Amino acid sequence: MSTDFPFDPATAIHDETIAARVPWSRVLKQGEVLHLIDLEGQQAVDALFYRADHFEERYSAQDTLRAQNSAYVTTGTKLLSNEGNVLATVIADSCGRHDTSAGACSCEANTVRFGHHTRFMHACRENFTLELGKYGMSKRDIVSNVNFFMNVPIEPSGELAIVDGISAPGGSVTLKADMDVLVVFSNCPQVNNPCNGFNPSPVRVLIWAAA
Ligand SMILES: [Zn+2]
Q1: How far is the CA of 171 from the centre of ligand 1 (A)?
Q2: Dihedral, CA atoms, 99, 78, 170, 208, nearest 10 degrees?
């Protein structure tokens, strides 16, 4: 954690390590701050956001990118909903950029990209389905997501490349909730491409109360 980071872990209202490969969720109250730490480096964390009192309003990658006129998520990015409201804002970022174009890995996509033998490997869509089920949602509620710590450069040709992560051990991104928002993470289990350094690893979440 950089020395100018204004939040002290000792004052966090929540401090949890998310094991490798598993989902996680929590409702952030408006004004709460969530700090996500890539403990070992090069670990993608797929993220979805829903308005806490009305899940039909949810993260929109398209509106977020259009509004900020940039292809990546970083400090200052306002994560917009499909209603054009700000769900949360990225207030700090040691990584520099995060993807919101490449989507979440799935068993189906794995078979297309890596071969049928990967059919039974765990994937982010399964994590999202499991976690959303706790809130009465299902597969149909999975929309285009944010991939924190995932390096997906957009080539001059317009193609997406999934390459080695640029997130160093201890790298972090910090969000402030602009409304009461349900945050759903999948600590990505992918082992067939470099997004997790071929070694899924735990991440840490710290939350502070609204100022
Ligand atoms: Zn994944």
Answers
A1: 19
A2: -150
Global pTM reads 0.94
**Among 183, 138, 195, 163, which Cα is nearest to 33's?**
183
* Side-chain half-sphere CA neighbours of 118 within 13 A: 17
Q: What contacts 21, CB < 8 A, 6 or more positions away?
A: 122, 127, 187, 188, 189, 200
Å from CA of 163 to ligand 1 middle: 14
CA of 10 to the centre of ligand 1 (A): 31
Ligand 1 centre distance from Cα of residue 193 (Å)? 10
Residue type, 189: P
* Per-residue pLDDT of the chain in tens (211 residues, 90 and over written 9): 444 577 899 999 999 999 999 999 999 999 999 999 999 999 999 999 999 999 999 999 999 999 999 999 999 999 999 999 999 999 999 999 999 999 999 999 889 888 999 888 899 999 999 999 999 999 999 999 999 999 888 888 888 887 777 789 999 999 999 999 999 999 999 988 877 888 899 999 999 999 8
**For residue 30, which amino acid is it?**
Q
Supply 61's token pair.
């990658």
Tell me the CA–centroid distance for residue 210 and ligand 1, in Å.
31
DSSP 172: E
